Amino acid sequence: MLRLIDIEKVYQTKTIETVALNRVNLTIGKGEFVSIMGPSGCGKSTLLSLIGLLDEPTSGTIELNGRAVRSYSDKEVAALRNSKIGFVFQSYHLINDLSVLDNVELPLLYRPGVSGKERRQRALDALDKVGLSARTAHFPGQLSGGQRQRVAIARALVGQPELILADEPTGNLDSVMGEEIMDLLLELNRRDGVTIVMVTHDEQQALKTERLVRFFDGSQVS
Ligand SMILES: Nc1ncnc2c1ncn2[C@@H]1O[C@H](COP(=O)(O)OP(=O)(O)OP(=O)(O)O)[C@@H](O)[C@H]1O
């Protein structure tokens, strides 16, 4: 589904040039659950932002479903990102002034052809999947960290993406809640076939996934 071919990412500032990714080759198949591990600064977040079509490589090719991403216009890339990719972050990124249901509905606001009624139903379905049907009227501030991350996962799911990108999804949670979130991601992958790429610092969690890719200094080492 996704291929990274000879990817290089160089950040150039006035004083220093940083090679964040150095000739990375990675293929992610449909339905896979891949963990990415590596020390701080090795390029994990950079990799996720490229896979998530949030940034472009300095050189190399990213292919999505067999077609080079660079052959799409900016507008098409934005539409692809919105329809095919769901994001989950370490710090949830929920909007505190919106209810749980409204937070989950948000990504569908920018979808053409989705009525208000359908939006609501899909958000309710996504919240049901993450076990939060009883909390739809709550606000993020009234939830535990684990529950907030469940809301964020429901928000990532509501657009029915092909791919979920999770950047340290359990990084802010204690081990019990972290386990719960990990089990939820594993279930979504196994039961619903959602492809997941997860950056984590937690070796135990990484070992539960189908595949573990390790990075060091911008390069893939295993
Ligand atoms: N916007 C930027 N401008 C300049 N340098 C950057 C930028 N973003 C990242 N870098 C550099 O690129 C390298 C890789 O950073 P990246 O954030 O991808 O690492 P990481 O593995 O995700 O680290 P961490 O585990 O600490 O989040 C680092 O040396 C970082 O300083």
UniProtKB/TrEMBL annotation:
Domain of life per record: Bacteria
InterPro entries cross-referenced by the UniProt entry: AAA+_ATPase (IPR003593), ABC_transporter-like_ATP-bd (IPR003439), ABC_transporter-like_CS (IPR017871), ABC_transpr_LolD-like (IPR015854), MacB-like_ATP-bd (IPR017911), P-loop_NTPase (IPR027417)
Keyword terms of this UniProt record: ATP-binding, Nucleotide-binding, Transport
Positions of the ABC transporter domain: 2-222
Pfam families cross-referenced by the UniProt entry: ABC_tran
GO molecular function: ATP binding
Name under which the protein is recorded: ABC transporter ATP-binding protein
Native source species: Hymenobacter aranciens
Lineage, uppermost ranks: Bacteria, Pseudomonadati, Bacteroidota, Cytophagia, Cytophagales
